[in-house]
TrEMBL record:
Record-linked SUPFAM superfamilies: SpoIIaa-like
Source species: Mesobacillus boroniphilus
Coiled coil: none
Name this protein carries in UniProt: STAS domain-containing protein
UniProt keyword terms in alphabetical order: Phosphoprotein
Domain (STAS): residue spans on this chain: 166-277
One family name in Pfam for this protein: STAS
The organism's taxonomic lineage, starting at the top: Bacteria, Bacillati, Bacillota, Bacilli, Bacillales
């Protein structure tokens, strides 16, 4: 490959990246919910900056070593992936814009070839095609990997936050508490609930805990076993546990799976459970022992 021609093409591409960026941005549809929308003027400056760096990164494959290009690809992909996750941009929209810009990019290279056709061989054009298309593909792959990692990290953080907020003991008195559980409980969440409930029971000095399951949609054998473990551990530290709100479909499933709640005081509703134990919301002083 002729390095002089490579350098000429590199200079042609990078001399004014705004030419390519303007052509790309002119293709944007109107979509208020997308970072790529022609109506999203707030995001345009960042798109111009990111695309300018992208152009230079792709063009650098013509004049730099593979290691240098690889480092720049990773840095660019990481920055853009974080931004696209933060702006909640679906991955299919990102891939679509790569396809659009690839066409703009090659129109620009075609212009260079036409202007210098006497100095460029067919072999060089084929080599440029292979090299640049490969670089585009590597960048797309790297970006989607970074997007996936960052997106999953955010989900993990959000999941931990939800867990923290989804197992609160509500103190009704100095020794009585209610634990309302809501949503689907998997083994991971059940484990977190165990740790959280033990800590809260100790902090609030709970001796009577009412666990309400009316907001729980599914209980399987593994979750039920985890629930029984919570109850057994609470008993060891002096906490008496009461269950309320087992929905009919859950009760039916429990029977089919051989899950036995008979050893635990149960009531249809939290109100009934409190009343059965002589706990009145307006006068929380005693609980049946």
């Amino acid at each position: 490959m002729d390095f002089d021609n490579n350098k000429k093409l590199y200079d042609f591409i990078t001399e004014d990246p705004s030419i390519l960026t303007n052509k790309w941005l002119s293709t944007r549809p109107s979509n208020p919910t997308s970072v790529y929308s022609s109506d999203n003027h707030q995001a345009e400056a960042k798109l111009r900056e990111q695309n300018g760096l992208f152009i230079k990164t792709v063009a650098k494959v013509l004049v730099a070593t593979e290691n240098e290009v690889d480092q720049e690809i990773k840095a660019w992909a990481r920055t853009v992936a974080v931004d696209r996750v933060e702006t909640r941009t679906p991955i299919h929209e990102i891939i679509h814009q790569f396809r659009v810009f690839r066409g703009v990019f090659w129109e620009h290279i075609s212009q260079f070839v036409m202007e210098n056709k006497e100095e460029i061989s067919g072999t060089e054009i084929l080599e440029w095609s292979s090299l640049i298309h490969s670089t585009f593909d590597i960048i797309i792959e790297t970006l989607t990997e970074e997007y996936h990692h960052y997106y999953n990290d955010r989900l993990s953080v959000q999941s931990e936050l939800i867990n923290e907020l989804s197992a609160p003991i509500i103190p009704l008195s100095d020794s009585i508490g209610v634990l309302p559980l809501v949503g689907e409980i998997d083994t991971k969440r059940a484990k977190y609930i165990t740790e959280s409930v033990l800590m809260q029971s100790k902090d609030y000095r709970i001796t009577h805990l009412f666990i309400d399951l009316s907001g729980v949609s599914i209980i399987d054998t593994m979750v039920a076993n985890q629930l029984f473990q919570i109850i057994d551990i609470l008993k060891l530290i002096g906490v008496k546990v009461y269950i309320s709100g087992i929905r009919p479909e859950i009760a039916q499933t429990a029977v089919q799976l051989g899950i036995n709640f008979h050893k635990i005081p149960t009531q249809a509703t939290l109100k009934q459970a409190l009343k059965a134990n002589k706990i009145i919301i307006s006068d929380l002083h005693t609980a049946q022992k």
